[in-house]
Amino acid sequence: MKSFEELVNTDDPGWPLVSEWIKTAKNKIEVLPAEPPNCYL
Asked: What is the pLDDT of residues 1-41, one digit of tens each?
């Protein structure tokens, strides 16, 4: 099992890639808001 530090990479975040997937999705996409304190990672 990976550690928390390995799973959360602030140097190379994945959101830009996910954002591109959302823009090109053929199905309806709903991005749910982050809930504090998890959104501050």
From this structure: 777 777 777 787 778 888 899 999 999 999 988 777 766 65
Q: How distant, in Å, are the alpha carbons of 12, 18, 24 from that of 9?
A: 6, 14, 24
CA distance 16 to 10: 12
Q: Contact 14/41 with Cβ under 8 angstroms?
A: no
6's tokens:
């390995």
Q: How many CA atoms lie within 13 A of 18 on its CB side?
A: 7
